[in-house]
Amino acid sequence: MTIKKHIGYTLIIGFLMTFSSLLMAEQVVIQGDHELHYNTFPSTFLSKEIANTYQITRSKNRGILSISVMDKSGEEPKAVEADITIEAKNLVHQSKDIKLIKIVEQDEAIYYLGTFALNNEENVNFSIEAKPTGSNTLFQVKFSREFFTD
To answer: By CB distance 3.0 to 4.6 Å, which of 6, 24, 63, 96 could disulfide with 88?
Structure first.
């Protein structure tokens, strides 16, 4: 891994941790020894450097969905890979195409980012299914977010 990529990964994690309360509160669902963390925010909240690193288009009409899964069965919580399925639709049942990219950092952080198109004052209903690798746990989460682009 190049130093530039490592710096980019560190910047995005720092950004997400620093500004998560300003964006929209991160949501956590706990099932047994696993936690599913998810969050949505406008792509314009990313710096140009971070957006370029992950080939994410910064636009007021693009949103980002962030997902991570933690295994808390050991002494230290550990990020784990998961099979994740996303369905997103607006209130008139138009589907949002969200393709997740898996990001694995050198310090073993694992998270998934997906971008999607959005309009001003658009409500989007999300349905997430996530199954941590090697586990029988199945997360099924539904939530809605309203986005403002103007």
So the answer is: 96
